[in-house]
Amino acid sequence: LKELGITVQAEDYLHPSKESEVNNNLAVTWEKAKPVHIDLNDEKKELMTTAKTVEELLHMQKIDITKWDKVNPSLETELQENMKIAIEKAFPLKLEVGGIEKQVWSTSTTVADFLEQQGVTLNELDRVEPALDTTIAPNGVVNVVRVEKVTDVVEEPINFAVVSKKDNTLQQGKEKVVTEGKEGLVSNVYEVIKENGV
C-alpha cells in the first residue's frame, strides 16, 4: 500500500488486513470511507463510513428505525460523499376521534399534518384540540370532537281561538255558533348541536 501511495484510514475497508503477507495472486480490496452527516432529532453527527446504503449505515451505527420514523433520503438510497441524512424518531401519543381513543405514533409535526397522516377528515363544524397549527409534543393528546347541527321539528296542539261578533238578528243575550272551532298544531323548530353524538 505504501508503494502505491495509499493511506488507509481506520474507517476504510481493507481485506486482507495490513499485517497479511503478500504472495502471488493476492487479491487486496480497499474501500475508502466517505464522510456523511447524520441529523438524528436535531442532534448532528459527522462520521466516515464504507456503508453502501442509508439502511446499511444506520444498521452499522445501531440506529433502529421503525415504520413510523421519518428518514430522508429513504433507506434504499445509495450513500454519496458528504450526504446529509435526517432522521426524525416517532413518539407515542393519543388520538381521540368522536370519543374513540387510540394509541398512535408520530414524528414532530403540526396537528393538521398529523390528522392528514392518520386519514382523519374534518367536517365543517368539527372542533380540534389543540389547534391545527400547534406542533405535536411527545405523549400528547389530539382530540377531534365531531360536531353536527340537527334541526328537529316538534308539533304541539294548541287550542282554537274564540271570536265573538255582534249580531243584531239575534235576541239579546243569545249566542249562536257559526263555525265549530278545531284544535290547531304549532310547529316548533329546534336547532340541536351534538358533540360526539351527545
Polypeptide structure, described:
This protein is mainly beta. It is built from two helices and twelve strands; from the N terminus they run ββββαββββαββββ. The chain has helices at 54-60, 111-117; strands spanning 13-15, 29-31, 34-40, 43-49, 70-72, 83-88, 91-97, 100-106, 127-129, 141-145, 147-158, 184-195. The strands form four sheets. Strands 4-3-6-5 form a four-stranded mixed sheet, with no helix packed on it. It has a four-stranded mixed sheet with strand order 8-7-10-9, with no helix packed on it. A hairpin with a 2-residue loop joins strand 7 and strand 8 (100-106). The protein is rod-shaped.
The order of strands across the largest sheet is: 4-3-6-5
Order of helices and strands: EEEEHEEEEHEEEE
| Model regions low in confidence, pLDDT < 50 over at least 5 residues | none
- How far apart the termini lie comes to 79 Å
- What's the helix count? 2
Please state the CA-atom Rg, rounded to the nearest Å: 39 Å
Label this structure with key terms.
four-stranded mixed beta sheet, 7% helix, 198 residues, mainly beta, 38% strand, 12 strands
